[in-house]
Amino acid sequence: MSQNPPSLRPDLAPAARITDAPRSGQPTIGMVSLGCPKALVDSERILTRLRAEGYGISPDYSGADAVIVNTCGFLDSAKAESLDAIGEALAENGRVIVTGCLGAEPEYITGAHPKVLAVTGPHQYEQVLDAVHTAVPPSPDPFIDLLPASGVKLTPRHYSYLKISEGCNHKCKFCIIPDMRGLLTSRPAKAVLREAEKLVESGVRELLVISQDTSAYGTDWKDRDEKFPILSLARDLGSLGAWVRMHYVYPYPHVRELVPLMADGLVLPYLDIPFQHAHPDTLKRMARPAAAARTLDEIAAWREMCPDITLRSTFIVGYPGETEDEFQTLLDWLDEAQLDRVGCFQYENVEGARSNALPDHVPDEVKQDRWDRFMAKAQAISEAKLAAKVGTLMDIIIDDIDEDGIATCRTKADAPEIDGNLFIDEGTEGLSVGEIVSVEVDEAGEYDLWGRRVS
Ligand code: SF4
Predict the structure, then answer these.
(1) Which fold would CATH assign to domain 6-135?
(2) Looking at ligand 1, which atom is closest to the CA of residue 288?
């Protein structure tokens, strides 16, 4: 079966980057972090704790006394990738602790890899740490092992993921995340804000707010002052002076109250909303939240309030029972919705998902054909939207400057790793990574822009 390219797989997160060199004799742990940005945040937390306890972090297998593999179990292909990663870590290092989503099925892992030292489930931080302590006893040195104020970060220093809740109260039929991660549990707003403040103080210029269901943040609290606590959290995060980007927002009616914060410049005018499909029958078979929402009306309302808003979404094509007619509705919807950024993946069975049992699974070649048609349309929309930006001025954040002086940047419309880039080919002397500067856009491609600095 064909696979979507990694850039379009919503379950994939950027690879972990670890740069700290351990000191000689220090007990040292390696980390392989697979899966979504939420898993990446878990990896960061585990490494933060290990650093605080005096462990070194090894960027390779050979320098590590043991390796933690943080797994993903979202799709069967992701599970297979996790098993491969565990096998590689066993072959290269031999001492492997498994955690993350796939850890919810320990026998699946131990069946394939009986030699792993321990298996723990998602967000079982203490158990992972216990397993590390058993495998590699700590040797703390409080004078050397001072934790950086921002903790250990696997993302570049100028942006950071900020996880605001865990779990989900929905029961989408294709998804096993609620089984693996449990019901929605929101972090206290004070804790989220404290973490965000520390990140901003340590140089983070962009906060990427993530969860399974960001718009539902705080609705699991029995005693709450407001109906939708995401609104005040967004306002408070927006007051910290960093870019705040909201991911995984569902199109509930109260999103209309979030958009004015974007129009006011408190939060980036960017909504990452996983619509998944547009035909009401398909959405019903998926058991999607807000399946009955009139999403085109919502989109029109958001754009009226905030004309600059960028809308990103992901979709599934070839869901069981999807007829050509339903798919055509999705294409027509996309034509009308004119989303700025779109990811799409072909439906796959995932062990334990209720959608597996649905009738009328779509043949692989039909899925591929629909995916091709969907992406062709999405690409044409993206190209036209980017072409319209030529000649405009915009603020960009610099992610990288290479040895030839070419700067890879992002506009407010681009989330790191999943959206496009803006490149500055010359005149980057004196600029640094993480800086936010103004550019004039002078060229546009299918997904990327080029620009030049303006003073
Ligand atoms: S909203 Fe649906 S797809 Fe998203 S985590 Fe919850 S159950 Fe899964």
Answers:
(1) Rossmann fold (3.40.50)
(2) 2
